[in-house]
Amino acid sequence: MDRNGRTRHAPPRACIAVLLFGICTAFARSADFALPPLNSPPTTETHPGKMLWADLVTPDLAAAEKFYGGLFGWTFRSVREGRSGYALALLDGRPVAGLLQKAIASGEHRQSAWLTFLAASDIDSVKRLAVSHGAKVLADTKLYPMRGRQCVLSDPEGAVFALLASSSGDPPDYLPVAGEWIWSSLHAKDAGSEAGFYQHLFGYDVFDLPSDDGVEHLILSTDNYARASANDMARGSARRHSHWLNFVRVENAAASTAKVLALGGRVLVEPRMDRHGGMVAVMADPAGAPFGLMEWSDSDTKEEPK
Amino acid sequence: MKTTATRLLASGLGATLLVLLHACAVTGVEGSVGYDGGYYEPYGYDYGGWDLGYRVGPSRCCEHRGDRGGDREERGGDRGGDRGGDRGRGGRAPAYRPAPAGRSAPSIPGRSRTH
């Protein structure tokens, strides 16, 4: 009490109350953008260089949800991200991808795309190694507590990819079901040099299986499983910048192609037979983001000895 | 005077803390503003022109490499395994080391998810 009988400590208490309110609000907001773990329950597995996530960046999240939901049966859960929208795509309740709405500044000639995340449990050393071999850091490492630490890089030819050190371990090696990512291919001006770059990062075994048309087709593997391919760009391709392309497993590529068209997408490469004896195709969603379709029949799959 | 100064200091500290907490909550713990999980690519490119023989996928189990694989290893040995240097791209990225000749290319995992 002061000389006038007033309580002297009331204003500081008010400050503390305001501060506590602010802390609670901030953490509530943080909880809004809580990306779930990749694995529930967590695993202790690590599979360097395995494609374990993909994020779509799109100017129209609602249209993307409608398209991919209709095509693959994905359902979506909204996650608040500042002023932008982010939706988790789920298949049978399991997270399979993320869709991020991000405006394209007027005058910027940019195309919607899927970003490929490769597993890197020791993300800092892999990032350093990448930079020392010619990569550029596009978005530096950031922690999303349940998801893990991730950063976005461009490789020596400019293909954009991300590293992810999952907080819940890497997903076990299963044959993906229809609607899940099954394959990733890197399309480069010089597949050999690019394979060398990624081999430095992840210790890939590299197998040369040339295409029937003679262009370089390299299989990148770890743990005695094929993880991705590195390919010289097709001779007639108009798409001349290096890029990663991810494939979703489908039961029937022709039927899925018809669905793509019905849902407002485009066909970039018609279904055609690939090395494994199934059909592959390349599509673009309504915003132009390319992705692949791949058939894979269970009956032909043989388990590799580990 | 002293009390006023203390109040002002406490208010200032509180406001600073709020700003920091808000920034951490919205942007993540490390790095820049916003979620860094999306990246727009250059516009104006398209596919097309994949020859019928153009292959992108994995093989089925245990496909053996063609003659080019063996050639590659021999050439790699002659060149110290650095094709990048041969192509005048030295210092950008070294070329790959091929898997041992006796190994065949693996396929993707074949085990089904049990749950």
Question: Could you characterize what this model shows?
Answer:
The complex is a heterodimer of chains A (306) and B (115). Chain A is α+β, with helices and mostly antiparallel strands and 306 residues long. Chain A has one domain (51-103, 110-300): 2,3-Dihydroxybiphenyl 1,2-Dioxygenase, domain 1 (Roll), CATH 3.10.180. Chain A is 22% helix and 38% strand. Chain A contains 5 helices and 17 strands. Chain A has an 8-stranded mixed β-sheet. In chain A, 48% of the residues are buried. Chain B has a domain at 70-101. Chain B has 3 helices and 1 strand; from the N terminus they run αβαα. The longest helix of chain B is centred in the N-terminal third of the chain and has 26 residues, at 2-27. At the A-B interface, helix 1, strand 1, strand 5, strand 7 and strand 8 of A face helix 1, strand 1 and helix 2 of B.
Instruction: Give start-end ranges of low-pLDDT stretches of chain A.
Output: 24-32
What is the H/E string of chain A? Answer: HEHEEEEEHEEEEHEEEEHEEE
Cα distance, first to last residue of chain B?
Answer: 69 Å
Helix percent of chain A reads 10-25%
The portion of residues forming beta strands of chain A comes to 35-45%
What order do the SSEs of chain B take from the amino end to the carboxyl end, as H and E? HEHH
Q: If you average the pLDDT of chain B, what whole number results?
A: 63
The general outline of chain A is globular
Largest interface (CB within 8 Å) is between: A-B, 120 and 78 residues
Integer-rounded radius of gyration of chain B: 29 Å
- Can you tell me the CATH class of chain A? Alpha Beta
The largest pleated sheet of chain B is described as: none
The low-confidence parts of chain B are 21-33, 67-94
Number of domains of chain A: 1
Q: Oligomer, anyone?
A: heterodimer
Strand order of the largest sheet of chain A: 2-3-4-1-6-9-8-7
